[in-house]
């Protein structure tokens, strides 16, 4: 008997909680819809993300062009940010490594954009644009000076998702 009463109370509470949401959804007009789409075009903050041991960090913003069809990639994505080296040794650097998945005909390959900073405690600014973007991911590493990131940096650990086309 008590279980039925509690179930009934929970059901009524759920209906009462959802009623204002349904009323709000029904009153959206064209002006409000335009404001919502303008909001989606605003740049989103990402980070602060750290390398293992907090030996490097990166943060910034990502802007993706608004789109009507969520199943298609965005026509343009812009990434801006800063990378910091937090290692005290002169031979190590902070790396911000981006993996961008994009549309190329019927394929969806990916490419990397890397930014390094080897000056302890100083920020290095970076920015890049990319077209037909499906996904943007980030990994922050702290590694020795090199022309490109190591395989360990690229393939060990997890990538932080910054943008996915269906969001």
UniProtKB/TrEMBL annotation:
Keywords: Signal. It comes from the Bacteria. The keyword Signal applies. Residues 1-25 form the signal peptide. This is Secreted protein. It comes from Sphaerisporangium rufum.
């Amino acid at each position: 008997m008590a279980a039925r009463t509690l179930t009934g109370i929970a059901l009524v509470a759920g209906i009462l909680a959802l009623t204002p949401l349904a009323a709000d959804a029904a009153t959206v007009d064209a002006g409000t819809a335009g404001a919502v789409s303008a909001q989606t075009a605003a740049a989103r903050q990402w980070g602060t993300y750290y390398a293992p041991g907090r030996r490097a960090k990166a943060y910034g913003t990502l802007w993706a062009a608004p789109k009507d069809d969520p199943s298609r990639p965005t026509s343009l994505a812009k990434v801006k940010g800063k990378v910091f080296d937090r290692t005290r040794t002169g031979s190590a650097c902070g790396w911000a490594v981006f993996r961008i998945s994009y549309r190329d005909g019927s394929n969806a390959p990916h490419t990397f954009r890397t930014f390094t900073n080897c000056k302890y405690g100083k920020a290095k600014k970076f920015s890049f644009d990319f077209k037909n973007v499906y996904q943007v991911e980030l990994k922050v590493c702290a590694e020795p000076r090199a022309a490109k990131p190591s395989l360990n940096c690229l393939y060990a650990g997890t990538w932080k998702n910054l943008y996915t086309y269906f969001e």
